[in-house]
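Schema walkthrough. Field components (list of strings):
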Amino acid sequence: MARSNTISTSLRGGGVRPGALPYLLVGPGAVFVGAFTLLALAYTVFASFTDWDIGKPKWNFIGFGNFVRAAFDPLMISSLAASLIFVGSVVFLSVVVGFTIAVALNRKFRGRSTMRALVVVPWVISELATGVFWSLLLRTDGILGQAFGGPLNSANGAMISLILVETWRSVGFVVVMVLASLQSIDQTLYEAAKVDGASRLRMTWSITIPMVTPGLVTAAILLMVGNFNLVTIIIALTGGGPISATTTTALYMYQQSFVYFHIGYGATIAIVMSVVNVMAMMVFMAIQKNVGVRH
Amino acid sequence: MTIAVPAPNDFSLKGRRATDPGGLALTVLTCACITAVFALPMLWIVLKSIQPESEVFSNNILPSSLTLDNYARAVKSGHLLSYTLSTVLLAIATCCLVLPLGFIAGYGLARFKFAGRGTLMFLFMFSLTIPGLVNLLAIYQAFTAIRLINNPIGLVLVYTASSLPLATWLSRAFILGIPVDIEEAGLVDGCSRIGGMFRITLPLCLPGLGAVAIFVVVHVFQEFIIAQTLVTTRGIGVVSQGLRMMQSQYSLDYTALAAGAILVSIVPVGLFLIMQRQFIAGMTAGSVTS
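Field assembly_structure (string):
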């Protein structure tokens, strides 16, 4: 680009010293966002080193006591396993199904915007409504519950139901992201490949997949983080049960913090989750950087 | 003066016509599967919601008569009227904070080079991707201390904080698409820097801000867990809380629950269907390389 699109700060205007202007513009938003993320994180770190519990009269610093407790807490370990199975399955299924649907919708035919809208609608509905909606279908006397013998009553059935319902909700997001990438592919690439005698499979492998990979990876990471922190659908569909079969780490943290009010321990689980979140974010940003700065 | 408004991206669909039989088969098959997996369950719930309660266990798929009683019961037992009103007010209040703050922050990040810009961009990008659940404990404690529990203002603050990163990111992307020459022409004509921002750039950004507003409204109508934690007074809070109350107290009233789930979804789904282009632009913002 020959010309930068930013304004040199030496330009004078508005009676405000130009040097201060950008800070005045970005400041309010940054303070807002910073208070709710960085301050909250600092507070949570602090609380995670205490034995703070609503049921006890006073709290003490206990160092890494909560972290040691978490490392040997069977419920914490099983919740991490549940999260791994849940998040891994949802991301895998959403990416595979979403990619297939996007490729199928990337050609002209009557009614394809209807099809796209149909796939995206679940992403727009409130998570709680989705949970209620599917629990009506899946409960023992519901139409699907009868067909599959009350899936929500068994540990595996509940987990599979949860994975499928969340995949149903997430596929639309992947479809939108992949379709946007597919639409940006220069069609002449395919024509050139055709002239060179490339097969359809070869074109998919050598043109389509490399071109949509950035969008697909972005969608996968955002879905991963979103589902790792998801509680609403689980509350509405299985409540974490039967027993604790579908209690993921996010739900376990929520229960410790807001059902039992074990503030210190809840904060510890939140910190463990934050570490996972931030690691996923780092991967996300590294990929973004590799792909090139957007906009 | 005529200015070509830069469209951020054209999200209307384009593509090749299906000519080869293999691709056509894939398309037909996919459409059939989409209909079966996405449309049929929704249709079933709609049918349940207009079926008389007495027929709920009958094996007939089609109800013998249609009724709106279930909707009336859902509105009453879920306090859906007051919850809907409250959700609308929360969404409007959140927009009133998010749109101006997001616009000026986006403008600052797009138009100026200054020390610390990279750090601030990182802050917004970071918060864009990290969900709020891990911060909820700290927010709950802080709000207890400053008496913002059970207070709609508290919810507006949290929703503002969670929507601002996207609003800033979208505004920035939109402003980057507007040639800076237009503003500099205004400067030459005697417009101040701030005047140029509001009188020249802002009107050009309105489509982008519209997309942000839709996103905020849908976000507030979808939200449940933050409101459920911070607000327990019945009738203030968000619609999903009304549905949750129905689910825990009237779990046997299937037809009313189906009606409630539909009522709670009408606003976000309606907004999405009307404003699909803007919504999809928002979904892909900050995530698709262009």
